[in-house]
Amino acid sequence: MNSRLALHLSLALMCLGAPPALQAQGTEPAPEILAGDMREEVVRIDVTVKDLYNRQETRPMPITIYRPPGDGPFPLVVFNHGRAPQERRAAQGRFRPEHAARYLVAKGFVVLVPMRVGYWETFGDFDPEYSGECNRMQIGPMSIAASDQVLAAVEFARTLRYVDASRWLVVGQSVGGLTAVATVGRKPTGLLGGINFAGGVGGNPDKNPGRPCSPGAISSYWGGLARNAAVPMLWLYWKNDKYWGEDIPREWHKAWVNGGGRAEFKSFPPAGDDGHQGLLIDMNSWLPAVDEFLNQLGFMQAAIVPRPAASGFAELGDISKVPVGESGKTNYPKFLAMKSPRAFAVGERGGWGHATGDYAMGRAIGFCQRSGQSCKLYAVDDDVVWK
Questions:
Q1: Are 353 and 365 in contact (CB under 8 A)?
Q2: Domains delineated in the chain
Q3: Which of 19, 139, 282, 387 is the right S-S partner for 271, CB 3.0 to 4.6 Å?
Q4: Cβ-contact 191, 169 below 8 angstroms
Q5: What would the pLDDT profile of 40-69 be if each residue is shown by its tens digit?
Q6: How confident is the model at residue 25 (pLDDT cuts 50, 70, 90)?
Q7: Which helix (H) or strand (E) holds 342?
Q8: Does 341 sit behind a cis peptide bond, omega within 30 degrees of 0 on the bond before it?
């Protein structure tokens, strides 16, 4: 079966609902099942970067694109991934922040997600983000290499008719957050702001939880970089971050502000086993903060899925009234067995999705909409809300 036919078949199956394990657990879809509602695609551009030892290479950089319906032009978000510990980096696949991207697309942005050189397809003999030994880390070269690739992605975006690259933001998680800070410090044209999710470098949650390498190197570098920063930032950290701990990020923020940068610091309660993954596992905490930040920048479009009122359309347990095909009706009892918070969504062409836990309503709609159809909530917690 060729790849195009396989993709079409996968999307057709999604009209009947994603596989139950994906729905219930909120895991990412198989790589070949793209988010049709956001017109997800992967393109590749050539980028040239240098490493710590001044070695220069030109390599292909994959970029995942998510975008709203319509022709635009839409403002841009460049969303940057993190860096797994050395022993796990070879297995670090394509970064797909699907649920966060769906919020940003609903907010009116095109989202570009570069897989920087040294990760996924280009993992191997050239690592421009290697920063040296633990006690002698050099933050500058890796920051320049990473932010160079952000700027390359923006230049590519200028060639896309549906993107307004004169208005863009940089966002990132972990080393991607470091990348966002480094990009803001370079004062590029058109940049309006930056969001740093648990940014930093040098952490190892397995060997040294909460005690990253050379934290003072980041304070020193970011403090100097901040004098060039011209746009506001939002910094988001979780108290049980196993990479940095609770207090070190506050020192980094203090260095940035004392150096002349503008950044609001948010510290969230512990999330899961490791708050470093808060981007993915604690949307309920960060969504309101990010939405407020974007509203202040002038991006006012409503994007957080609201909770509808109970409609009285049917009894919660009446499967016969759920407007889905047999696949959805078969899986509706699994939704009923979930703990609250929980949500079940239905699509205009029989699609369905359900989720429990963090941002259940948004994730349920997202699972349903992967096939490219419009979806609405049918039930939330113990109420039928569909009309």
A1: yes
A2: 51-296 (3.40.50.1820), 319-384 (no CATH)
A3: 282
A4: yes
A5: 999 999 999 999 999 999 999 999 999 999
A6: very low
A7: strand 342-347
A8: yes
The amino acid at residue 243 is: Y
CA distances from 237 to 177, 242, 270, 277, 281 (A): 11, 11, 10, 10, 13
- Classified as helix, coil or strand, 363 is helix
Per-residue DSSP letters for 114-153? E--TTSGGG-SS--TT---SGGG--HHHHHHHHHHHHHHH
Alpha-carbon distance of 26 to 313, in angstroms, equals 27
Q: What is the rounded distance in angstroms from the CA atom of residue 365 to the CA atom of residue 9?
A: 21
| Confidence label for 32 from pLDDT (cuts 50, 70 and 90) | low
Specify the pTM.
Answer: 0.89
Confirm if 143 and 170 have CB atoms less than 8 A apart.
no
Residue 67, CB-side half-sphere exposure with 13 Å CA sphere: 22
Task: Return d(Cα 359, Cα 287) in angstroms, integer.
Answer: 9
Read off the pLDDT of residues 203-236 as tens digits, 9 standing for 90 and up. Answer: 888 888 999 999 999 999 999 999 999 999 999 9
DSSP β-ladder status, 163-173 and 74-80: parallel
Rounded Cα–Cα distance for residues 169 and 186 (Å): 13
- What's the mean per-residue pLDDT of the chain? 90
Residue 56: other Cβ atoms inside 10 A: 10
What integer pLDDT is reported at residue 84 of this predicted model? 80
Q: What is the pLDDT of residue 4?
A: 34
Q: Which pLDDT band holds residue 141 (cuts at 50, 70, 90)?
A: very high
Contact 249, 263 (CB under 8 A): no
